[in-house]
């Protein structure tokens, strides 16, 4: 081969073989592994965008969470209107991968918000609520983690993550309506643009639970 290269007048190729970029169809197929829909439903365009973004982060040489993302995939993604002009994305993960997602939640949100510019990103896990007729389904005891109250409390923690909740207070108006006040850890006030996300947290919690809540930091 070397003799042929010299004889042809072209220099012999030395060094490693140049990196070949994955074919777009191959990349799309790999990205689709990052989303698993219930009963084989077809992913939406937004869900495919999120799946591709996750795959891109996983294969990025500079990513420090690529190993954690290996077995992480989503189950759904939803657009969210925040106020009159704001936009956000709610990303839902199967509960079986939530422990890993929770560990890297802050870093993964940062990376995804770079890809979904001008949109906040909110995570939540899929959870099943068992109503009071659970005995008809063959269960003797309803796990506390499956009650409506507990699931909604967990969703609240998901939505604000990785910021922690330090207090909650329910205000009841004269007309009987309830408003939940959620106090966030003041040490996170200047981190990750949390203060700018208060309206997003409220909109996401309303979308997922149909309950009103306001988010704020305790007075110093």
UniProtKB/TrEMBL annotation:
It comes from the Eukaryota. The keyword Ribonucleoprotein applies. One of its GO terms (biological process) is ribosomal small subunit biogenesis. GO terms for molecular function: structural constituent of ribosome. Pfam families: Ribosomal_S7e (PF01251). Keywords: Ribonucleoprotein, Ribosomal protein. GO terms for cellular component: 90S preribosome; cytosolic small ribosomal subunit; small-subunit processome. The keyword DNA-binding does not apply. Belongs to the eukaryotic ribosomal protein eS7 family. This is 40S ribosomal protein S7. It comes from Alexandrium andersonii.
């Amino acid at each position: 081969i070397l003799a042929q290269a010299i004889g042809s007048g072209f220099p012999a190729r030395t060094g490693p073989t140049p990196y070949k970029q994955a074919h777009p169809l191959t990349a799309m197929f790999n990205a689709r592994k990052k989303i698993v829909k219930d009963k084989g439903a077809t992913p939406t365009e937004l869900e495919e965008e999120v799946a591709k973004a996750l795959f891109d982060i996983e294969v990025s040489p500079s990513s420090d969470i690529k190993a954690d993302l290996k077995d992480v995939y989503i189950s759904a993604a939803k657009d969210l209107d925040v106020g009159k002009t704001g936009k956000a994305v709610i990303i839902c993960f199967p509960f079986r991968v939530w422990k890993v997602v929770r560990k890297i939640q802050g870093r993964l949100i940062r990376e995804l918000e770079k890809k979904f510019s001008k949109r906040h990103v909110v995570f939540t896990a899929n959870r099943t609520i068992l109503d009071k007729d659970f005995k008809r389904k063959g269960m003797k005891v309803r796990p506390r983690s499956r009650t409506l109250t507990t699931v909604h409390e967990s969703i609240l923690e998901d939505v604000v993550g990785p910021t922690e909740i330090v207090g909650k207070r329910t205000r009841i108006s004269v007309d009987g309506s309830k408003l939940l006040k959620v106090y966030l850890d003041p040490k996170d006030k200047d981190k990750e643009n949390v203060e700018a996300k208060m309206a997003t947290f409220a909109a996401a919690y309303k979308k997922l639970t149909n309950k009103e809540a306001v988010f704020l930091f305790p007075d110093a």
